[in-house]
Amino acid sequence: MAIQKVLIVDDSKTELMFMTDLLQKNGMSVRTAEGADEAFRRLSEEKPDLILMDVVMPGQNGFQLTRAINRTPEYADIPIIMCTSKSLETDRVWGMRQGARDYITKPVDAAELFVKIRALG
Predict the structure, then answer these.
(1) Where are the alpha helices (DSSP H) in 1-121?
(2) How far is CA 116 from the centre of its chain?
(3) Helix 62-70 to helix 89-97 angle, to the nearest 10 degrees?
(4) Which residue of 17, 62, 67, 90 lies most exposed, with the fewest beta carbons within 10 A?
(5) Which of 26, 19, 21, 37 is nearest to 82 (CA)?
(6) Helix axis angle, 36-45 relative to 62-70, nearest 10°?
(7) Which neighbouring-strand residues pair with 5?
(8) With contact defined as beta carbons under 8 Å apart, do 44 and 35 qualify?
(9) pLDDT for 121
(10) Which residues pair with 105 in a beta bridge?
């Protein structure tokens, strides 16, 4: 299954614009959310093929949100790639333990991101 619909969850408007532009130029349809509540609203409106998840956000962080999505049966099959400035190995391991399928650090390298997306699809 090719990845076509992507939900980006990030509290930075700059990151949302950068990632949206990058993905749309590669033929993907993108929706965005700036936090956990908005992310769950977007999920209920249309189920994406992939979620790109920031970690450092106000309220529920990306680790908590990833865990919550993975524990929700109707969303548990959606792959999540963490896209974050948290670059420690312990952060990557923790993200994967919460249910992320992959982990990429910011600034996001487009080639690396698309390799990871293709590996899922």
Answers:
(1) 13-24, 36-45, 62-70, 89-97, 110-120
(2) 12
(3) 20
(4) 90
(5) 19
(6) 30
(7) 29
(8) no
(9) 76
(10) 84
Q: Tokens 């970690």 sit at which residue?
A: 55
Q: Per the structure block, which two tokens stand in for 5?
A: 């619909």
pLDDT tens, 43-90?
999 999 999 999 999 999 999 999 999 999 999 999 999 999 999 999
In the sheet that holds 5-9, the strands lie side by side as: 29-33, 5-9, 50-53, 80-84, 102-105
CA-nearest of 28, 31, 33 to 12 is: 33
From CA 28, how far away is CA 66, in angstroms rounded?
22
* Residue 2, both tokens: 């090719």
Residue type, 119: A
